Amino acid sequence: MWSVGLDVHQHVSDLCILNGNGKMVKQMRIRGHFSKAVAELKKLRQPFAVCYEASCGYGAIYDELKGIARRVVVAHPGQLRLIFKSKRKNDRIDAKKLALLLLLDQVPQVYVPSVDIRSWRGFIEFRHRAVAKRTQVKNGLRSLLRGQGVAMPSGKRLWTRAGRSWLAALELPTEEAMLQRDILLDDLRHFDKQIRRAEKGLAARSANHPGVWLLRTIPGVGPRTAEAVVAYIDQAKRFTRNKKVGSYFGLVPCQDSSAERNRFGHITREGPSTVRKLLTEAAWQGIRRSSQINSYFERIRAGDPDRKKIALVATAHYLVRVMLAILRTGSVWRFDQKTKKAA
Q: How high is the pLDDT of residue 340?
C-alpha cells in the first residue's frame, strides 16, 4: 500500500507518495482548492493511506479523503514538530515527512469527531466568543465612565435594566463621549441578543442528551459546562484511563525530569481553552455547593492562601476526571446527600 503525505493550505497543496519500500513514487504541487488534490488522489491505481496535519477545516478534509483512501490519519501539529526538528522546512519537505511517518506508523494522531459533533463544538465556541465580545463592550463602558470621572454602580448593578437606563440617560461632558456611550450600548444590546439566541439553540441541542443530564447532577456544573465537556470528550471510551482526560484539557503541569531532579511547572494549557475556563468556573461553584469538592480543594490548599490558585486548578482537574467516569459508567453524582442546585 502506498503512503501519501499531504501538506494542505487554502490555495495550494503539496503531495508526496511513497511505495511500500519507502521509495518516492511521485511528488507534486497542486494549486487551487483542496478538491483538486482529491481529484489527483482519485487517479491513483494503487490502494493508499494518506496523512495530513490538523488545521482549520481538518474535519471536512477528513470526510473528503475517507471515501477514497484505505486509511486517513490526521497528525497532531504540535507533537509533529517535536518529532521532526529541522532548520530546513518547506511544504514539499513537510509532505515527504508526513508520508515517511505514515509508512513507519509513527504519526502522532488526533481524534476526528463526526460532522455533528464538530458542528456542536463550533457553536459552543461561537457562543463563548460572543460572551467575550460582550465583556469587552462592558469594559469599554466602564473605562469611558472612569475617564470622564463619573461614579458608577459597582458589580453587576450597572448591567441591570435600571443600571442601563441610568447609563443611557447620563449626561457626559462632551458630545463625543455621549456618542461613544450610545454606540457601546447598541453593541451591548446586539451581543445580548446574539447570546440569547445561541443559548436557546444550545439548550435545544442538549435538552435530551443523557450525558449532559448526568454531568448536571454534579454540584456547580451548569448546562454550558456540561454540554462543552460532553461535546469535546465525545466518546468516553477513547480515554483508556481517567488521568488522560486531564492532559487532553491541558490541566496537568509541565514536567522536567532528569535523574534525581523532577520539576513541575505551570499547566500545559493544551486542548480547548473554552472548556478549561468553564471547568475552572464550575470548580468555584462546586467548592461552595459540595462538601466533597470543598474537602478536596482544602486538602490541596493545605491552609496556605498562596496555594489557592493551585488548589482551584487541581479541583478542576478532579472534576473533569469525575465527569469522564460518570460518562463512562452512566452513574450520577452521589457524594453529597444534600447540595444546592447548580447555577
A: 47
Amino acid at 141: L
CA–CA distances in Å: residue 258 to residues 3, 255, 262? 37, 10, 6
Domain residue spans of the chain = 2-104, 116-206, 210-329
The residues with which 23 forms a beta bridge, in sequence order, are none
Q: Which CATH class is domain 2-104?
A: alpha beta
The pTM for the full model equals: 0.89
Strands (E), the chain: 2-8, 12-18, 24-31, 48-53, 71-75, 253-258, 261-267
Residue with cell 509513527: 106
Q: Write the DSSP assignment of 256-304 as a string of letters.
A: EEETTEEEEEEE---S-HHHHHHHHHHHHHHHHH-HHHHHHHHHHHTT-
Angle between helices 308-329 and 273-289 (to 10 degrees): 100
- pLDDT at residue 93 above 70? yes
